[in-house]
Amino acid sequence: MKCKLIVLILVITGLLQFVYAQEKNSWVILSENQSGNRRAPGLIYASSTNEIILFCGARRRVSNELYPYNILSYQIDNKKWMNDIPDGFKKISVKEGTIENIKFNTPYFTMKDVEGNNQLNPEQLPIYNQYAYAPWNHKIYFIATNHFISYDLKTKKFEQILTGNDPLEPQQGFRSSYAWGSMCADQLNEEVVLFCGKYDTQRGDLGTWVYSTKNNKWTNLNLAVQPPVRAMSPMTFLDSANKIYLFGGSRLDLTYNDTWVYDCTTRTWSEKTAEKSPKPRFAHGFHALPGTKDLILIGGSTVRSSTSYCATMTEVLPFEMWVYHTDKNTWEMLETQNEPVQSPLDTMVSTLIGQNRLMVVSRVLANGKIPDKTFLCEVDTNKIDKKGTVEKSVKGGIFDIREKTFDPNYYKVE
Fold first, then answer.
1. How far apart are CA 142 and CA 160, in angstroms?
2. Global model pTM greater than 0.85
C-alpha cells in the first residue's frame, strides 16, 4: 500500500512538472475549445480548495448549439476543463465537454432550470470584473443583472443575497443593468469592496461600497476622496500591505493610467500614480503576488477614434506584462513571449495560481468562429525588459481620449 502511494505521488509530481516545464515569462497553451463561447466570465484560483474555476459569462442559445456547464474546474494533471456539476442534478451528469441544452422557463434571469436544478440562466451572465473570491468562507461573490450572488465552492450552490440596503435594484436582463464594475476581496476585514462601473447616479457610477460577509450588510462609504468615475478597471488585494490597488480604466470617452490605493485598515482611497507608467488602458488583468510588494499587469484595451460607419470604438493594445513595485512606486516592463490574444469586446480573463503562475482564458473571432484557449505563464519579475520599459512607458496620470466626432471641438473647426 505504501509503495502504491509513493508511486502515485511521483506520478502526480511528474505530471505537474511536465505541465509547468516551460521558460519563465513564456506563455504556453494548455487547452483549446473546451470552455465554450462565453462573454465576460469570471476566473479564480481558490487557494482554500486548490481549484481553478471558470464560471458564468453570457452565452447566446443559437439553434441547437451545445455548451459546457456554467461552472468549470480545470484539471491541471490532464489539461482539461471539466463540468463541475453538483451531485444529484436532474438530467445533467456529463463531466466533460458539452451537455444537452438546458431549458429555462424564462429568457431572463432565474436561478432554476425547468428541472428545478439550482443554476443560473447563461443568457444573462456577463460579469466582467464584478466578482471576488473570499478564501475565508470558500465562496465566490459576483453581480449579474444587478443580483448579488454567492457561489459556495463546497456545496456548489448559488444563493441570491439580499440585505435590505443593497446598492442595486435587481433587473431581468443584463442590458439595462449595472455593468463594467469591479469587486475585490478585502481579506483583512472579510469584506467585499465594490467600485466603479456604469450606473445611473450623479457621479455616473456607484462610488465605493463594502459588503460584510460576517454581518450580511452593504455599506456605502460616501468617501470624499476616491478615484474618478471609470469602468473595466480591475482591483487586486496585496496581502503584505492589506491594501487594494487599482490601475487605469475607461470613462468610455477616455482611458486612464493612474494608480489608486484603498487602505483596508482605514477604508480610504489615496492616489499613488507613478512618474512613469504603462500606457492608459482598461479591461486588463491585474494581480498581486502573495508575500511580495509586487503587482502584475497584463494586456488591456484602449479607446479608438474613428468616423467609420459602425466602427468598433475600442481596440486591443499590443500584449505587455508589467510589474509594479508598490514600495518604490515604480513600473517595469517584463520580457514575455508567445502571448495570449485578447478580444476587444472582453476583459482580460485571468487569475493568479499560487505564488507566480498566471492563467488566461481568451476567445477571439477567427474564421467565423470564436474558439477559446487557456494559457499559462510562470512569472519571473527579475526578467526586466529594460528597453521596453524606456520605450513603452509614459507619464503617469495622463489619459487617452477619443477624438474626432467624440470631441465637441471637432464641430467648431471650420
1. 10
2. yes
